[in-house]
Amino acid sequence: MRPSLEQAIAAVQQLPNLPSTTRVVLGYLNDDDADINQVVQAIARDQGLVARVLRIANSPFYGLPNQVQTIHEAVIVLGFSNLRLVVTAAMMTAQKFPGLANGVEVQRLFRHSIAVAICAAAIGRSNKLNPNLLFLTGILHDIGKLALMATFTAQYEEVQSLRASGNLLTIDAEAQVFGFNHATIGAALCRHWHLPEAIAVAIGDHHSFGGDDDLDPSAKDYSAFAEVIHLADAVALGLNLEADPLAAVPPLSERGWIRRMGSHEKLNIDFKEIERLYQELVVLIDGHS
């Protein structure tokens, strides 16, 4: 039976809440003026996070001659950018979404999210928008998919079947099965977790641009972050770094492109650099999650 939007939001809000420690750590990591000692003290309150951070800092990925033994050393080794990814990955584990069964699909989803995060940060820098917050938003932009997969497993399997057999975009398949899409659910979940409103708005609106090119520019006041995530999502899907055989680029907002990229026909970002960063981050997360 198809749940109403209200029922779906109520259901995903029953998922385990975001630990207050995680919110505090992410808040510091998104502040360019954050004191490293504040970050260290915040991480130290969560022993699970401490273990994960130390494990990754001591991984072969960094190849350090001596073992990292303190959180302070680990934060220095990882840097705020990698640490932000580690903390966010801790949010998106099977423990938080216990109903997830399709490991391959979840892995693809997280890899796509990494690609979107990298693209969003790059576009954000050229638009003088906070690249750190955009990176986090990119990582979380499809969190509604995870929530729906975990909460309405059978219905989401139907979404995947429709997507495969009907050559449909995910949001169109979701609309057929649920009557709404993962962006709306993701925004509701971010608000339930008390994440910054800019993230919730961007996640909720990042699929609201396709086919808008003939609209009056004043028809809707889309957020700058939502436009960036919309563009980054399309770029990441076009690159298909996660190797999804069903990956398809959604309709791209020409108006959003012009507002974010000006009249340039090409993105002012280095695709080879994006791929390099992507491969590094995937190794970091896949090998030590």
From TrEMBL:
Record-linked Gene3D superfamilies: Hypothetical protein af1432 (1.10.3210.10)
Domain HDOD: 15-209
InterPro entries assigned: HD/PDEase_dom, HD_domain, HDIG_dom, HDOD, RNase_Y/CdgJ
PROSITE patterns associated with the record: HD, HDOD
HD domain ranges (all copies): 109-238
PANTHER family: PTHR33525, RIBONUCLEASE Y
UniProt name for this protein: Nucleotidyltransferase with HDIG domain
Lineage, opening ranks: Bacteria, Pseudomonadati, Pseudomonadota, Betaproteobacteria, Burkholderiales
